[in-house]
Predict the structure.
Amino acid sequence: MSHDVLVALPLVIPLATAVIAMLFYNSRESQRVISVIGATALFAASIALLIAVREDGVLVSEFGAWAPPFGINMVADLLSAIMVLMTGLIAFTVSIYSLATMDPRRESFGYYPLFHILLMGITGSFMTGDMFNLFVWFEVMLIASFVLIALGGERPQLEGAIKYVALNLISSMILLSAIGLLYGVAGTLNFADLGMKLQDVDEPWLVTTIGMMFLVSFGIKAAIFPMFFWLPASYHTPPIAVTALIAALLSKVGVYALIRAFTLVFTQETSYTHQILLVVAGATMVTGVLGAVAQYEVRKLLSFHIISQIGYMLVGLAILSPLALAGSIFYIVHNMVTKTNLFLISGVSYRLQGTYELKELGSLYRYHPYVSTLFFVSAMALAGMPPFSGFMAKLTLVRGSLEIEHYAIVAVALFTSLLTLFSMTKIWTEGYWTPSKAEENDELPPGVEDFPGWTSNMIAMFVPILILAALSVGMGLLAQPVISLLIETAEQLLDPSVYIEAVLGDES
Amino acid sequence: METLMAVLVGVLFASGIYLMLRRSIVKLAIGLVLLSQAANLTLFTAAGLTRGSPPLVPEGGDMPPVPFADPLPQALVLTAIVIGFGVLAFTLVLVKRVYQTVGTDDMDEMRSTDGFKD
């Protein structure tokens, strides 16, 4: 396939799926089938894209055949392709999981079209090569996620939605102002062109100031310290499939944007900007995990963990060495897999016992050992225990930081990971080991006698969990190919000339 | 002109943020409108205000006659206005639904998702 097609497919497939699903608005059954087919196709297209990028280098598609920097172009370098691949994977697994967990009312009010519009916004943000276009994709993504969070109209959902909407719109407005100022300084908004022109700008302090505005804006979306308050207030309110989807993808788009902006565009005063990033990364890790330790509601606990993990993803960006950056990207990949899986498994325990409160859950290990094993794998992977993916990700990151002698951040990272382990064992003991209240009264806990058996619904819940758990183990045991790919990615990111030449041609 | 616009943008940002800090969700929505206008004006002003001829290339030439206004920021602002309009429409519906469901417009009453369950 030609490169233009490969780059366009991750945008066109979700759009087409959403449109076709809208055409079948009255038929819930058809929408379910279309959604799974669309997500599978997206996954396949994203695999093809990564293979092509690895073989042929950075792929650029000029939409409307206007040559950059005048037209808008989509760029798939290794980082973009990896992020799109992860989006495809999450889309595939969560779309299957949705079949079993979405209630018919939400399904018939357009859940599936929104799901795919959200995916389109995300893949668009990952691949765009233009700052203003990034803003547009952000808005596509945001409006879909606004509706997904509010869909259903339950009181907690609406309360969460209003905070989510307000803070994300503030972030968009800061982004828009920053884009305006950047255009005023550089006269272009194309990433590659910016990367080139801003190298020898007269007033680097002005560019750095604008860079800090981007840091605030992307930082709100990525939920970094001290701008994360909207995340634990809203992420746990919608149904679990929506939570898993947005938790896996939305804040990672913010992290991706930070990585893109601070490796390609704002590299004038790295000693200043990346020092700030490092401090923010450490603070994000610690505050996030401290929030998680205090929680007794599974979904809230996991939401706070997202924040803490965002900190890890920033460490590599702040240190800017190939190994540390590779570790950060590994962390993003690992986190998308594991965090989604933990949300999906908490959905299963909700299905079995009808609650997300740790104090009410119990006895799961005794009656459902397979669920417990899958939870254990993901929880240990998140805490960074060998041999799972989290261990390899953390190891790469820590080694990268030690090489540059950033001992303080290593200490913070390891301390955070201890607390992560603590909060994971808290879920394990409270939810899985401790006898539930019913059992203390010599009754069977809920979810045993009324266990629905292996109906198609149960299978649709377990297939995605199994796939993600297998990946979590696989990335830990067979880490070498993953790490070599990620180091290649990091080296590509640290040498902006690759990206710039791919977009602007040899004239640069 | 630029100075005047800068002051205007500052006033809009300040009043938008002031409104968003109030507890009423209706004021929150109005604050968002002001912020969005402030951002649009920033985009418009930062790219340079030129009083000149439109950027039309005369027949046979390859450059519009200078000084001409840069058309790109205007296209960007137009896009941003449309996006802002759509987002605002959603926000207003959300505000109405929140008011109907929660029964108040006071943000302080909407904290059931923040704290701990006893």
